[in-house]
From TrEMBL:
InterPro entries: BatD (IPR025738). The chain crosses the membrane at residues 447-465. It comes from Winogradskyella marina. It holds the Pfam family BatD. This is Protein BatD. The lineage of its organism: Bacteria, Pseudomonadati, Bacteroidota, Flavobacteriia, Flavobacteriales. Keywords: Membrane, Signal, Transmembrane, Transmembrane helix. Residues 1-21 form the signal peptide.
Amino acid sequence: MNLIKNISILFLILATSIATAQVKFEAKVSKKKLGINERLRIDFEMNQDGDNFVPPSFSDFDVVGGPNTSVSHQYVNGKRSFKKTYSYFLAPKKRGNFTIKQATIEIEGDTYKTFPITVNVTAAVSKPNGKAAASDVAAENIHLVAEVSKSNPYLNEAITVVYKLYVSKHTGVNSWREKDIPRYNDFWSQNIEIKGFPVHVGEYKGEEYRYVILRKTVLYPQKIGALKLEPLVMDVTVEVPSERTDIFGRSLLTRVPRVVTAGSRTINVKALPEEGKPSDFKGAVGNYDFKVSTTKSQLNATESLQAKIEVSGKGNLKLFELPKLTVPSSLEVYEPEHQENIRTNITGMQGKISDTYTIVPQYKGKYPVPNISFSYFDLATESYKRITSDDIVIDVLEGPTAAVTNEEATTADTKQTVNTNTNTFAFIKTNSNWLSIQSEPFFKSTGFWSLLLVPFLAIPLAIVVRRKKDARDADVQGNRIRKADRLAKKYLSEAKKAMGQKESFYLALEKALHNYLKAKLNIETSDFNKEKIESLLSERKVEKEVVSDFISILENCELARYTPIAQVTMQNDYDKAAKTISLIDKQLR
């Protein structure tokens, strides 16, 4: 009997754990019978976070509020519970029995549906909706909205996201706090400082609302295709009127905590056109001026001058390289000093960037500096434009004459006389002094004894080598480290060959990291995303810091294709990748 009792308890525990792990997605209505002058609230609740929520059509109702999204996390007796809700407020169009059809959502790759709900709409009632709960009033009268300036920009074109909190006239906000700040993984981003939170008046879905601007962010997309903007989530304390009144008959306010979200947005980024793209195009997008100038046009040898290459205007100034200065070899040129004077406002970056080269001539003469061209994509005309600098001549007045010039002059002005020699073949030797060689017997010679003794001497040497090999084979940890290092060098060999060529290097580095994961984790390239990689490596007992380093290298590979990268940065990324692959291979279980 005890055995049967224990088995029953075990099955009960298993059934309970399975039930708690099940995904729940259901629709709930505030009432199933309402008057035609009442409003119906419908909530779509789930116990796990999902994507691609699709509501029913609500063809028999007018949507007067929503969708409002709320998220809650609770910990009770050490157990975590999660609930996410999409809420709509509906007004019936006519009387009758109406069926609200299924809503769908994707959770962990599976699609879930709610059950249809039938609602009976009757004639108008004297007290529509009765007493509305404070939470319902708060949900209906406060909205967080993300307004995007452009949803289909070009690559590296500035767009702006403005987050506004709309509050109805009959509701107030006591306080707010950012709960989850969006991360713009595929964008260059900068927040615009907001001084104070002045209250504005505007419209939300045709009704007058008050609103405050909570956050302004300028984004420059760094990839083409559909890029997702993560939502901003906020904790808000809402003040709504209650049924209680003060001694003057004014309604007292009730504070209701709410979690509001702006919802995710998708930005469809267009690639820059290939037609007409100049060969010297470095990724500049915007509207620019370009000039090349020198501080002097005449000087003496060993004196110095500065040559400045400058781009000014409005666009992605921090995200492209300036053209390089090319001068004759007789001019000594030092590494340029890079300067930026850029300000970022709601419309994007504007200002100027420059590279200043110090030039020191060594010899007297006139040295032409070839013209330099700068190409950019003009957003106003949606076409490429090129600006070319004027030719510059550096006149060195005093100084030594270049040695090459003297040699060339001597060669041009001097002709050597060729004298004939009658004894043309005097260098050929016509007699010899041969020596006789007497052969010695091989037996008992040095070579004989060497060949005889070498095998005996090799035996202890072979024993020593064998013991060292056995010890090396027994060193499991050492062999694992050596194997990991060889593996890292194998996968990164192509990236090392492309060192110095930015695009080729980072393409090879990213491919090496992906090939390594395919080999070690047995997953296809199409399955790659940062979240899955992080999950798989964590499951295989790889340390969190190592996983973070691996993800950061992948992000560097994506970003580096569109930003200026120095040789030192490439070397650092290569060394970090080699170290990270080696550590992962040692830690994988």
